[in-house]
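User: Can you predict the 3D structure for this chain?
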Amino acid sequence: MGANDLQDLLRQVREHLGAGPVDADTRQQLSSLVHDIEHRLGTGVMGGASQAEARLESLAVKFEASHPTLAETLRQVIDTLGKAGL
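Assistant: Here is the predicted structure, written as structure tokens:
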């Protein structure tokens, strides 16, 4: 998986956020995190990726019961970040 795959996964996360009921705080956290990853992809600098992965995992756990598809997409983002060495 490469940057294009990651972009596709981030797009899916945004679509999930738009389609389902998510509390405002969680929506803001996830939107901020997705924006941060997209910004880092654009600049080619992914320092702090382990922090992003930890934040994504925390949100994935939060969504496990209420939004399982979103939780799975977040885990795919984590996996892609790791495989790409970002």
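Residues 9 and 73 are 7 Å apart (CA to CA). The two ends are 12 Å apart (CA to CA).
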